[in-house]
Structure formats: C-alpha cells, structure tokens
Amino acid sequence: RDAIDRKEKRSETFKQGMETGTPALKTEELGRRAPQWVRDNLVTMCMCCKEPFNAITRRRHHCRACGYVVCARCSDYKAELQYDGNRLHRVCQECYTFLTGHVAPEEREGKHKGILEKGAAEVSGRSLLCSSLQLLDKTGKGGTRGWFVIPQDDPLVLYVYAAPQDVRAHTSIPLLGYQVRDLPQGDSRHLFQLAQSRQVYTFMADTEELKRRWMRAMARSAAGIAGPEEGEDADS
C-alpha cells in the first residue's frame, strides 16, 4: 500500500512539474499494459532518487513497468510483466515492490547506497582491482576518464568515481551476468566491453596488460566468483 501511495504521489508530482506528453499508467495497469516512456531529454535527474544524470557515469534507463527515466541503481530490479508474456524486465524499485509484493532486499539496497557514500581512496585500499579507465560514449570516439573499483566487500559490482580522491561514487554497475568481450587493438587503443542484452559498456585501458587484468577480474565477478585469482593479491 505504501509503495502504491508513493508511486501515485510521484506520478502526480511529475505531471504537475513538467509537460511530458506521456500519459501515466494507472496503478492497476502496471505490468498489464506497456507504458509510454518518458522522453530522455525531458529529465535531468533520476525520477526515483533525484540524482542528476551524467552522460557517461550515470546513464539513463527506463522502467519497463511505469516508463519513468531512472538511474542504474534505481532500476536494478526485475519483475514479470504481463504485457510481455510474463517475461522478466528491468523495473524501478517501487514497481518491483508493487508487482512482486516483495520489499526490495534491505541488505542489497543498504550495501549499494552505503558504499556509494564512501571515498574512493578508502574503497580502493581494499579492492580486488582499481585503476583509471576511460568509459567511451556510444560513438566510441569520445568519453570520460574515471576511477573504477571492484571492492573486496562487494566483489560483484563495479563502482565508478570521477577521480581517485572523490568522496562519493557516481554510480555502480552490477557485473553479475555480463559478458566480457575483447575488442581488436587499433590506433594503440586497448578496448574491451561489458555486454548484457542491449546494454553495452566500452572501456579503454592505458595498457594491454591493464586491459587483460580488468577483463579477468570482470569475468570472474560476472560469473559470481568472489575474491582475487589464485596466486594473485588484491590490487590497491
């Protein structure tokens, strides 16, 4: 009931606050009818947590149940949607609660939000791997450098900081289930990708050796293997 009330209140707030041209689904239609997505260019922040979007480190996603534009952290849930043959789709936290009847796991929610508030230096000091990488945009020609960390105490998630001394992470990418792809080296660029369904992240490392280390670390996390490789110390 609380989730329903919050969703209805949030719908009303955004309808009053901006002209989206997108009729909101009634609560009882969630999961039963395909939503009309709120257009990306109409929002500058996550419609759940209100954190501002960043073209590289905080990407826009759409909840497949309500159509709202949300960040990766707030859409890190899956629920069966009746309008698509009860297939599992990415949904926001509130739709997850409404559609499944389950409260979002407090342990996972607390862990992700808590570590985002911790400084990069602290997390890097007890990481499986950390270094500077460049996350490329969709064209593959531009992008932004950041500080990337796989923490020892949350080894299935990649955390993204703008700089090694930042006090708060920009975002996180759950690695479980992703495929790690090698890309041909061209123009001295050391490229690799994380891919899952239609979500693809393309990274560029400074050296081929660093690229290989990240590919191994990400592949282990994607397979659900926690901890450093045998005979290899965690990197700081």
TrEMBL record:
PROSITE patterns: PH_DOMAIN, ZF_FYVE. Residues 1-13 have a biased composition (Basic and acidic residues). Its main location: cytoplasm. Residues 1-22 are annotated as: Disordered. GO terms for biological process: cytoskeleton organization; filopodium assembly. It is found in: Cytoplasm, Cytoskeleton. GO terms for molecular function: guanyl-nucleotide exchange factor activity; zinc ion binding. It comes from the Eukaryota. Residues 126-223 form the PH domain. GO terms for cellular component: cytoplasm; cytoskeleton. Keywords: Cytoplasm, Cytoskeleton, Guanine-nucleotide releasing factor, Metal-binding, Phosphoprotein, Repeat, Zinc, Zinc-finger. Residues 40-100 form the FYVE-type domain. Pfam families: FYVE (PF01363), PH (PF00169). This is FGD2 protein. It comes from Ardeotis kori. The gene is Fgd2_1.
